[in-house]
Design goal:
Elements (H helix, E strand, L loop, with lengths): L7 E5 L5 H9 L9 H9 L8 E7 L2 E10 L8 E8 L8 H14 L5 E7 L2 H9 L3 E12 L14 E5 L8 H10 L15 H9 L10 E5 L2 E10 L4 E9 L8 H15 L4 E7 L3 H9 L3 E12 L9
Parallel strand pairs: 4-5, 10-11
Antiparallel strand pairs: 1-2, 2-3, 3-4, 5-12, 6-11, 6-12, 7-8, 8-9, 9-10
Length: about 325
């Protein structure tokens, strides 16, 4: 509860906010895996094109929520931005979320964003909050989790010429792994923004070198010596595992490579002592939903994409 005299402040993120922001991010949503270390890293990264920024909501000296926002990179579409945030459940409906989203919209509008994308929990209060603030609801995302102490299914027969190797094997030169992602992302199910200009340097900076990216638990399926598919893992130091992206080059699809890679990654995670695994998929992505069901994942939550058209200062009469 908050008193009528409580004072809310929206300000920029500071490194000392990281633990509180991470706690707000996963409060009531254990399927969201994000470490405090990663938050500090994200905010320390130079982002001259992304204009990344994190705002926090502080209530009487306590950080109760945050929003991370920036310009979407890797696409020829212009003026697309994102803003994703959360507020501790006990402090919702007191203006924190509205203040955070307003700050993100103002920041991104100043950098030419005309269309803002966010994700909201697929439950009535969150959906109503988004629509009341001018957001149009779009596609649905499903989260699923599994207890890593439970047995995994037996591995299918591996096709001839296929190896399963840890992504750490490409630590010195990850470009072959990037080629898998840049090909697979072109037709990712449900995506509203074409990721048709994905640059290697951006991928290195924003994905491969994340401190929560666990290259020992990430698995690459290799066909005749070349990476063809992978299942990337992120961990948070709290015994939780997140499937960051599972992908296959289009020419190698239909051979069960992503299933093999994801199963092996989960096997390694369980052997390393991790307790819970989480993943997400667009609800139209039938092939990956089927693989995850086979792996023992069970639905635990949902999200909806919400999109808003932002007015530039000249359109607002400023």
């Amino acid at each position: 509860m908050t008193s009528s005299n409580a004072h809310m402040t929206i300000r920029d993120f500071r490194p000392e906010d990281a633990e509180a922001v991470a706690a707000a991010h996963r409060a009531g949503r254990e399927h969201l895996v994000l470490s405090a270390e990663t938050l500090i890293w994200l905010n320390a990264q130079p982002s001259p094109e992304e204009h990344f920024r994190t705002f926090v909501a502080e209530l009487d000296g306590r950080v109760v929520g945050a929003v991370r926002c920036g310009v979407v990179l890797g696409t020829t579409a212009r003026g697309i931005g994102y803003a994703n945030g959360s507020v501790l459940p006990a402090f919702r409906r007191h203006g924190a979320a509205t203040g955070l989203l307003t700050a993100a919209e103002r920041h991104l509008t100043g950098h030419g964003v005309t269309e803002l994308h966010t994700w909201v929990d697929d439950e009535p209060a969150s959906l109503a909050f988004a629509t009341a603030r001018g957001y149009r609801l779009g596609r649905a995302m499903q989260f699923a989790g599994r207890d890593l102490a439970l047995p995994l299914p037996a591995a299918p027969v591996r096709p001839a010429g296929v190896e399963l190797r840890p992504a750490a094997d490409w630590a010195a030169d990850p470009h072959p792994v990037f080629l898998v992602e840049s090909d697979a992302i072109l037709d990712e199910p449900g995506s509203e923004v074409p990721m048709d200009a994905y640059e290697y340097e951006d991928w290195l900076r924003n994905d491969w070198t994340r401190p929560d990216r666990d290259l020992a638990l990430s698995v690459v399926a290799v066909v005749d010596g070349s990476p063809a598919a992978f299942s990337m893992a992120q961990t948070d130091g709290l015994g939780r595992y997140w499937s960051a992206f599972t992908a296959c080059r289009r020419e190698f699809r239909g051979r069960g490579l992503t299933k093999l890679a994801k199963l092996e990654s989960l096997r390694l995670a369980a052997a390393a002592g991790l307790r819970h695994a989480y993943t997400s998929n667009d609800t139209t992505n039938a092939p990956m939903l089927a693989i995850n069901a086979w792996l023992g994942y069970e639905r635990c939550a949902g999200e909806r994409k919400a999109i808003k058209q932002l007015k530039q200062p000249s359109e607002q009469g400023i």
